[in-house]
Amino acid sequence: MDITNFDKIIIKLMGYPQAGWVDLKGTYFTKADFLYRLTHNKAALRDIVIIPGETNYFVFRQIEKKLKIPNFYCKIDEGFIKPDTYKLPIGMKRRDVCNFLYKKSLKWHKQIAKKFFGVWNYKEYKKYLIIASIIQKEAANTKEMKLISAVIYNRLKNNMKLQMDGSLNYGKYSHTKITPQRIRSDKSFYNTYKYKGLPKEPICIVSKEAIIAAIFPAKVKYLYFVKCGKHHLFATSYKAHIRNIKKCRYIK
């Protein structure tokens, strides 16, 4: 459709077009109708809610459903997408959604990195994202995050396997209960019961609090923790850990 100088005058009289995507609610209409809709209609937006602890697998399924983009996928590292609520329009192309999420997330991570390290070095920063993702899956609340972080660093320092269930809640297993059978059968690098050290990639999307906890662990000697009600009990020795397990056995 050609837009003439006269059409530009009409657009100014009607009001300027809406910023961003516009839902025209149709395909075939007159030029006058098109100009009216261009200046009065708004985009059909959908809330994409991305929470800490979730994985790209489930975020992409949400986007696929809400924005009606079949087989949606972005080549964005796990743990990199910024947790937030994004209002995105139906009709946005996959490439545009991916670029939007990547740029928003990159800006966020750069701000955090420059605040605490003075520079942006993703290769170095990624180590903290990996640790932060385990913290995110394991901590019962933000107050525990630095304690969980300390356990991770202490176990690494002592050449111990991390042995953390949360590391197996990766990808499509984000909400799957971890069982002894799953621990035995999972051969991925995420299995911290099978392999020493950190996984090669983050487990999930992380909060700023988890990243800070990964950078600044608590100065404690804890090596173990166990879920006890709505929080965890921490211990510096295996004996104390067993006592904590017995103490919490009947707490639901």
Structure overview:
With 252 residues, the protein is mostly helical. The protein has 2 domains: 5-40, no CATH class; 53-220, no CATH class. 44% of the residues lie in helices and 9% in strands. It has 9 helices and 4 strands. Helix 5 packs across helix 6 (145-157), helix 5 (122-138) crosses helix 8 and helix 6 (145-157) runs parallel beside helix 8. The protein is elongated, with a radius of gyration of 24 Å.
Short overview:
With 252 residues, the protein is mainly alpha-helical. Helix content is 44%, strand content 9%.
Supply the key terms.
single chain; 252 residues; mainly alpha; 2 domains; two-stranded antiparallel ribbon; 9 helices; 4 strands
SSE order: HHEHEHHHHHEEH
> What does the largest sheet look like?
2 strands, antiparallel
Strand order of the largest sheet: 1-2
The percentage helix is 40-55%
Break the fold down into its secondary structure elements and pairings.
Blueprint: H1 5-14, H2 31-40, E1 45-50, H3 56-66, E2 84-89, H4 94-117, H5 122-138, H6 145-157, H7 180-185, H8 208-215, E3 224-228, E4 231-235, H9 238-248
Antiparallel strand pairs: 1-2, 3-4
Helix pairs in contact: 1-2, 5-6, 5-8, 6-8
